[in-house]
Amino acid sequence: MKTGFILLLLALPLAAKQQPTAECLWLHQRIEALDQAIAKGDHLKTEEERERWKAEFHKKGCEAYDY
């Protein structure tokens, strides 16, 4: 019983790494939406906003998660 509990505790960090935080998920979705807007021709301040959110995304280490 004790060994099973220890194995469970060891597996928790691995499972948690796969799920992004709410903030990282929001940043990822926002960047995707801005990429789509740019692809459709909306360049007015969109590219600057995308770069700002990408910098925040990397600053928070969000690229470590699966999306």
If you had to describe this structure to a student in words, what would you say it looks like?
This protein is an all-alpha fold and 67 residues long. It contains three helices and no strands. The chain has helices spanning 2-18, 22-39, 46-59. The longest helix has 18 residues, at 22-39. It is elongated, with a radius of gyration of 17 Å. The model has no long low-confidence stretch (mean pLDDT 85).
Q: What key attributes describe this structure?
A:
67 residues; mainly alpha; elongated; 3 helices
Give the SSE map.
Elements: H1 2-18, H2 22-39, H3 46-59
Average pLDDT over all residues: 85
How can the largest sheet be summarized?
none
How helical, in percent, are the residues?
over 70%
The number of strands is 0
Class derived from helix and strand content:
mainly alpha
Q: In percent, how much strand structure appears in the residues?
A: under 5%
User: End-to-end distance, in Å?
Assistant: 34 Å
**Rg, alpha carbons:** 17 Å
Unreliably modeled segments: none
The geometry reads as elongated
Helix and strand sequence: HHH
Total DSSP helices: 3
